[in-house]
Amino acid sequence: MRMLGIDYGEARVGIAITDALNITAQGLETIQRNGSDRVILRRLDEILATYEIETIVVGMPLNMNGTISERAKVTQEFIHKLKCKYNQLKIETVDERLTTVEAHKTMNFLEVNKNKKRDIVDTISAMYILETYLNKN
């Protein structure tokens, strides 16, 4: 059974997935939200039909001082939707502070074309979220 990592953003949602043994995390895709969670939930239905997922890990965007940010409140609402829709799955959160910074560092190191960065930064952030969870457990 695999784990799915989610970097829930205002415009885009990054998705990452573990290998079958839950050892490594790989980027899967970036979903354009188009202002609606329905788009994300529909795509998650397709992903869950393709892969055997037991845990969904969502990054929680806390403020740098550890307090709940406005974005974290919106993320909590999304997590509530996940828990209602996918109540048979384990839904976890991890602190995602600085994952986007790390994603940009990685892309700079790999010399990713600046026009492609926007399309993959959320997926890379989702990988870091999932790796954080894997390392913690």
Describe this structure in words.
The chain is of the alpha/beta class and 137 residues long. Helices cover 47% and strands 26% of the residues. It contains 4 helices and 5 strands, in the order βββαβαβαα. It has a 5-stranded mixed sheet, sandwiched between helices. Strand 4, helix 2 and strand 5 form a beta-alpha-beta unit. Helix 3 packs across helix 4. The protein is globular, with a radius of gyration of 14 Å. The two termini are 15 Å apart.
CATH topology: Nucleotidyltransferase, domain 5
Name of the CATH homologous superfamily? YqgF/RNase H-like domain
Helix content: 40-55%
Strand order of the largest sheet: 3-2-1-4-5
The fraction of residues assigned to DSSP E strands is 25-35%
Total count of helical runs of at least 4 residues: 4
**Shape category:** globular
CATH architectural category: 2-Layer Sandwich
Q: Number of domains in the coordinates? A: 1
User: How does the helix and strand content classify structurally?
Assistant: alpha/beta
Low-confidence stretches: none
Radius of gyration: 14 Å
Note the main sheet: 5 strands, mixed
Task: Spell out the helices and strands N to C.
Answer: EEEHEHEHH
User: What separation lies between the terminal Cα atoms?
Assistant: 15 Å
CATH class (first level) name: Alpha Beta
Compute the average pLDDT: 88
Number of DSSP E strands: 5
